[in-house]
Write a structure and sequence with these properties.
The chain is mainly α. 37% of the residues lie in helices and 2% in strands. It is built from six helices and two strands, in the order ββαααααα.
Length: 178
Amino acid sequence: MPPKRVKTEPAESQKITIDLCDLQRDEIPEFEPLFVQERRPEVHLPRNVRPDDPVAIFDLYFPEWLLVEITSNTNAYAAANAPSLGEFKQPRQWRPLIVGELRVFIACQLYMGLHPEGLTAAYWNRDTSKGPLHQAITEAIGYTRYCQIERYFHLTPPLSWGETAPPWEKVLFSYKLL
């Protein structure tokens, strides 16, 4: 028995819509994969960017002006939200973020995406009996500083006290940056 046709559109599109819920297992059409001709991968970069220069490729995604904007927004957010020194026994006073540190932070995020661990602290492990060593991370940034940047990281300018904004505003702001 052929599949039930729910709706057909004439001439222009020649589509047939099938309601799969009404079909029996033996009535479902066989899957036919799309044939795609094999080809070698190609890299399309601007002429001034060498494919073997990871910093130049990083700069394509994170240009200097964007890093400066994120650094400024992160510092503003930290200034507005960092706890006062009297709130904790051993406070971690915020030291203003600089663009070089932000580059390292983003590079760590990319590394962590490629080498997942269960806990963030595991990237600063120095004992091989407790797991792999991530020397690229431990030599680049300390755990405390990494956690501070992660806590205050802000793409958008922070809102003033009591100010509210529609939820999509941050996404729209980030979209306009890019």
